[in-house]
Amino acid sequence: MTVSVADIDRWNPGDVREVFHATRRRAEAAFEAADGIATIPAFNSWGGDAAQAARQANGHLRKDLDAHGNEALAVAKAAQVAADDMQQVKTDLAQLEADAADQGFEVDPASSRVIPGPNPRAPMIVALAEMEALQGRLDAILAEAGRVDEELAGAINMATGAEPIPDTPHENRPEIQDALSRPLPEDPKQFHELWEKLTPEEKDWLYQHDHSIGNHGGMPFTDRNTYNRMHLNELQQTNQAEIDRLRAAHPDWAAGNTPFLDSREWQNWKIQWDKANQSQHGYEQVQRSLQSPDGLPRLLDTIDDRGHAAVSINDPDTAKRNATFVPGTGQDLTRLEFSTEKSEQMLQAALRADPSLRPGDVSVTTWMGYDRPMNVITDAPSTSYAHNGAGALDDFQSGLRASHNDAAAGGPSINTVIGHSYGSTLVGAAGLGGHHLDANNVVAVGSPGVLAGHASDLSLAPGAHVFATRAENDIIGIATYATLGPDPMGEGFGGIPFEAAPGPVGPLGSPTVDAHSSYWSAGNPALDNMGRIIAGEINVTPPRFTP
Q: Chain centroid to CA 528: how far?
């Protein structure tokens, strides 16, 4: 079923949450009744065949009540997921409508199209590009709304008996049974404590209920890797089925034969076709990033169907030095290889900086767990991408700390977060506005601003250091101070600036995009300095130019 903007406007997540609360109460009542039967004092004084028969009968009754409670709990969880996803779609749509209004456009609920508003704010050719970018975002929201609509239908069918309810794991420990009857803890530390108590059967059962559970902060990274690789395979199968469906619907269009008339049907099909093929390319890039050309293990820490992924070199839980690299504008999963190459270079730079470190002592994660701005003109100046993704990075870093095996690593790891370009803006947002970024070092590379007026504004681990670097010829220098905060390289910011090579120069000495991506080139002092920081040093070489 196609979902329109008008349909989303009519959605009420609160109504679905009422289903969640009602079925949760029903499940809890069943569990309480089962526990009550097991503890009836009279049974303790009975003896003989009658007592044995009574115990058997009540044992069966207790199992039936447990099964009924678990069925109600499964419906409750499905309703909760659907309600949360509905709310996220509504939030994304509201953000899009606000962004559209800021640019002089509006969203037509009836046609689900972005249209010019009464007060255009840009020349026609620029306005068309902006409108096309906004329509792409809207189409992605509508596609997600369709998935959520199917998710809600599944929850309703489970509640009415039209779909079977998944089996539940066998569990006799009251505290674990109680924990599994409730939503899993959001806090990474609490989640880790529960996860470590579960049996393999219970972990697998949780995965069957939520195939994204491997993204949960606090799960050990080897388990995240296990479940996320399974989920990646499923996502690829679903994606291939979608490509096959679209090809079967219009084999001539799929072969590249564009129709003579630019119909609405063609436009809708083309949007879906391009999105499905882009997803396929992204998943292929994730699979490629899990290969190990250097012999060091790769772990899949995050994966979903919204273009988010995170891949670690070496196990963060046993590493003494952990780094998280956050790419910026334009870096979707189809370009993942370019970011993972940078992570590989930083890991080697850290090993060179401290020869006492063994290869497995350092782990670097390429983290693309947020919606990166994809358009430099229309998206990159916005703070919304950073604010919307801040919680995910905050959670990832908290989970990194919660699951870390201090005994195996010889103590807590030194954690560094490196943000490149808009990635540094996201890093800043993760330490502001009530968020706490559990990092010992923060590094802003080629940054347009980190949303903070001063380094001390960031909520980081005690004693943390804030570093910044920018190539003299980096084109990002033009954008600094615009909308995302003061220059982190500036003397008044309070950070520790370090040297980078000037980078390639353009005609008449103009700054370049090439300089913006030059920090990881061989021999660049910026790479050496990042290696020192990851290795735990704070002595870096100062910059040779004044910003």
A: 29
